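Chain A, query sequence.
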Amino acid sequence: MRKKLIFSVALVLSLGLAACGEEKVKDEETPKEEAQKPVSTDNEREGPAEESDGVGETTESALGKLTVLYKDKELNRTVNNGPVNATLNKIQLATLEPSESYKESFDGQDKVTVVTIKASAENTVDNTINYDLNQAKLVTDTGQQVNADIWFSDDIGGEFLGKVKKNGNIIWILKHDEAVKKVTLHISGASNDTFDHIGEDLKVEIPLDK
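Chain A, predicted structure.
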């Protein structure tokens, strides 16, 4: 049950960052029409050569309703640390209204704000390196501080046993706040297999231009 919940949350919270045309994952126990019901939006840009920026897009599932507040598909921020080359590829800010069935998993809140970052990391040396990109702390310009949710995030940090590549989504769940205009990530420096620091702690500011 816990694994199914994690899968459902990760799928819905990262849904807006998926590339167009990607094959959608099906939950064998959830009907297709229930698992994903896109809602139309009037915020699409005009012009045959332009794509919608995604703002205002709403996706409904058994988990609840997710509404995109901000999205940058071309963030591409480098966060290299020691021998680990990493990139924050995309970011999304969204509001999630949990369904009654899953509200308890979000401390009973009617609404939460979700930050999702799609990232990648690669160890460039043969030695074992520890780099906790998926445990970064997030601070908003409105005064919230939260840890990355390791249950719902993909495993793209931790121990890199040699020249390993990892990629996926990192997810932070905030109290409902649509006034966020900037987030700052605090990422601990990389360390070697004896946990001696070989990289500096990083502070990465990401403005959310609306």
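The chain has a mean pLDDT of 81. The helical segments are 2-13, 32-35.
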